[in-house]
Amino acid sequence: MRIVVLAGGIGGARFLRGLKSAAPDADITVIGNTGDDIHLFGLKVCPDLDTVMYTLGGGIHEEQGWGRAGETFAVKEELAAYGVGPEWFGLGDRDFATHIVRTQMIGAGYPLSAVTEALCARWQPGVRLLPMTDDRVETHVLIDDPEAGGAEGAAEGRAPRKAVHFQEYWVRLRASVPAHAVIPVGAEQAKPAPGVLDAIAGADVILFPPSNPVVSVGTILAVPGIREAIAEAGVPVVGLSPIVGDAPVRGMADKVLAAVGVESTAAAVARHYGSGLLDGWLVDTVDAAAVSEVEAAGIRCRAVPLMMTDVAATARMATEALTLAEEVRT
Amino acid sequence: MRIVVLAGGIGGARFLRGLKSAAPDADITVIGNTGDDIHLFGLKVCPDLDTVMYTLGGGIHEEQGWGRAGETFAVKEELAAYGVGPEWFGLGDRDFATHIVRTQMIGAGYPLSAVTEALCARWQPGVRLLPMTDDRVETHVLIDDPEAGGAEGAAEGRAPRKAVHFQEYWVRLRASVPAHAVIPVGAEQAKPAPGVLDAIAGADVILFPPSNPVVSVGTILAVPGIREAIAEAGVPVVGLSPIVGDAPVRGMADKVLAAVGVESTAAAVARHYGSGLLDGWLVDTVDAAAVSEVEAAGIRCRAVPLMMTDVAATARMATEALTLAEEVRT
Question: Could you tell me the EC number(s) of this protein (chains A, B) (predicted)?
Fold first, then answer.
């Protein structure tokens, strides 16, 4: 069975671990979000691709969910001693090596997809990991800019705003201020990376793990051609709600859902994807009341436990998703 | 007193520490060799500039003479795990941070001289450290290439040869094979870095520390304009022999001296620089017999202890050099 998964970072990576356990013989292609990518210290950092790679390759910091296990921070401390920031992005020494290799290869002319394949040659994640695109896409978030103040905005009766890199919003500001818009800068001009459209066209099942529907899965879908390919693939597309009991299971998905005018409920996220894209949707048992609402929107829905407490629980979620896929196939 | 010093790595850096101790009020400008510079892992590494900076700034690994004290090697181990080499160049985590900052600044358009100034803002070496040039110069060494074998070289009756980067010759091969030539690639097209010629023109004394006369001081002198400026400065130029008792005090200077047809003796090195450049020369007391030979070549010479065993001994060497400078000034 050929499974295509659109993955963000932690949620996507943990789901994939469960999926591999549930379907050990499946041929899994992961289309990874690169809208979170950021250049730090002159190095290209791909947080979501790395989280998938480290998690499936056995190198992840388990408790933290991102970064490497057993990290040290000598490089970061030295950079701070040089007065070179930002200090709010936690890059460990082991992680730095990944970014150094990636940046060197990109500098030598390799596209990100080839670099990712080379890095995975070490990690052996057991899936084919593709970036959504080889082109540069950077998710920016529009927030209020109290420092700008000034007459211009006031005269027009609105607060001045500014766009910040997603990582600045997410990591530095911890999504503590309202997001007025989420803009995947460069997405309109981006092309799917080699292999992405072929994988979708050849898939038996397409899964949306409980990743952020706006800044993870949404950014992947913003690359022209990907959403269309999924809608036209003619195979079951099943998602798992990242919202449980009206709150994100982890992270701050509610903040960016608000920016796109979507309520932070399991049903609202399903409707956001829409029946044109989604055939099936899993909500948590606490959201069982949402099932009829989702089905009314033309999306088959089941309520099952959706807490990825361990690999076994996550594998059961993956099995439920694959079971629902078979149900909607007929 | 304005002192200009042409410095390589360890020998130059240690001499400078003694000079600062001997002449605490002097205004010292160091013209650093950049022919050893190498791009590793996509990062620009300047071993000699860094050795001077770390040594004078209190960050050097004292026993080793290069690199940072208290180093860890997480990045290097990870790069090896990715199969990315070379593994023979020992970059520690702390050191990596320096190269990351440098590479980022160069990528942003700053010349090496500005980058060096920025790095020194942290280290406060107590001297003005200038790269010899902002242009790329890479010292290559011509060696036999037994692997090439083949008919071409044999037909011409000579062994095939190849040029390797100086660091590959020095660090990987440990100068274990004969050097047929030392070529500062790019030197002919290089311009002295901003401040270099002004510092020489404004100097009261110019010193050649016991650095490698071929690949350190020699490379600096290979940048068009520097040798001429020194010869025309009209101030005492005094050097200290890196050869003591017919052998290099440290390193493998004899190997590269052979490549330029210079005997590995204190007197031969003085004659190699020549009386057109050098006014005074210090040899070690064990080489006292060389004094008359050097003086016969038109260079004032004194035999004094030249082992840089500690800062105090090195400061005495610096004092002897400054004293000799005053002698030759009249």
Answer: 2.7.8.28
Identify whether residues A214 and A308 lie together within a single domain.
yes
Q: Which residue is associated with the tokens 């596209």?
A: A111
Give the whole-number percent of chain B exceeding pLDDT 70.
97
* Annotated binding-site residue? A93: no
CATH number where B235 lies = 3.40.50.10680
pLDDT in tens, A225-246: 999 999 999 999 999 999 999 8
Q: Residue range B109-118: average pLDDT? A: 98
Same domain, A169 and A200: no
Q: Is residue A202 within 8 Å of A231, Cβ to Cβ?
A: no
- Contact between chains at A97 and B104 (C-beta distance less than 8 A): no
B153 Cβ partners below 8 Å, 6+ apart? B159, B160, B161
| Residue A290 phi, psi dihedral angles, 5° rounding | -80, -15
Task: Quote ipTM for the complex.
Answer: 0.90
A148 and A32 share one domain: no
Non-local CB neighbours of A182 within 8 Å, separated by 6+ positions:
A139, A140, A141, A142, A166, A214, A215, A218, A256, A259, A260
Domain check: are B129 and B202 in the same one? yes
Do B20 and B167 share a domain, yes or no? no
Chain B CB contacts of A92 below 8 Å: 74
Using the Cβ of B98 and the Cβ atoms of chain A, whether some distance falls under 8 Å is answered with: yes
A127 and A83 in a common domain: yes
Is some CB atom of chain A closer than 8 A to the CB atom of B107?
A: yes
Contact A82/B at CB under 8 A: yes
| Whether residues A173 and A95 fall in one domain | no
Which of A81, A103, A122 is nearest residue B81 as measured by Cβ atoms? A122
Q: Taking the CA atoms of A269, A273, A275 and A277 in sequence, report the sign of the dihedral they define.
A: negative
Distance to chain B for A213, nearest Cα, Å: 33
Residue pair A93/A78 in contact by the 8 Å Cβ criterion: no
In terms of residue numbers, what domain contains A162? Answer: 138-185
- Looking at the structure, do residues B158 and B127 belong to the same domain, yes or no? no
